[in-house]
Every structure is written in C-alpha cells, then in structure tokens.
User: Which sequence fits this backbone?
C-alpha cells in the first residue's frame, strides 16, 4: 500500500455563501492524498499499473468547477469523485483552502479537510 499526495493544486472557482463570492469567484488550493496498492507498478514501472495522479488532478479540476456554498461540500464531493473514479483507491483525504477569505481581517486562508474510505 502506498500513499500518493498532490500538493497545492490551484483553482479559480465560485464557492461561497455570499453572492459576491458566487458571482466574482476567488482562489482556492486543494491538497489531496490517497492510498492505493502500487506493488505491481513498483516492479513493472508502468503507469497502467497504478493510479495516475494526472487523472486524479483532472477529477479534482472537474469538481472544482461546480459551485458550492460550503468548503465542506466541495471537499466531500472531491473525495467521493476520486473514490468513484478510481476503484483501486482505498482512502482519500482532501483539504480545500479558500485563499484570502472575506472575514473582515487579514489571513492567508481557511480550509476544510475531509477523509473518506471504502
């Protein structure tokens, strides 16, 4: 079993509870980690024997295009999509960061992390 991580995927999306966030959008960062059996790929050196992180990125990108009010919903939806698209994944952890959130003060981000498993 191996842990594969993708750090710092950046997207411009329209997630948020405020009308302005939904209309204008803002920047998000997604970190994702998943476990899968890579023993065959470790020997074969063939991408067909593992879960391609390029393909995982494409799933995350697709899900980030769908507007949601809550980061909790976005993170859960991304995790469910990865598990559904890649049956060899056993667990997935998704951390969605909203950069520069409109909270009336200065901060880098707020984030929600969810962990899902089969």
Assistant:
């Amino acid at each position: 079993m191996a842990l594969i991580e993708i750090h710092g995927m950046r997207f411009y999306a329209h997630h948020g509870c405020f009308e302005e966030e939904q209309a204008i959008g803002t920047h998000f960062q997604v970190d994702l980690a998943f476990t899968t059996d890579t023993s065959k790929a470790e020997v074969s050196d063939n991408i067909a024997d593992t879960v391609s992180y390029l393909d995982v990125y494409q799933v995350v990108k697709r899900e980030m295009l769908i507007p949601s009010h809550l980061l909790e919903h976005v993170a859960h939806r991304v995790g469910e999509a990865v598990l559904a698209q890649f049956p060899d994944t056993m667990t997935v952890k998704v951390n969605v960061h909203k950069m520069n959130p409109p909270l009336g003060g200065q901060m880098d981000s707020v984030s929600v992390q969810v962990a899902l498993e089969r």
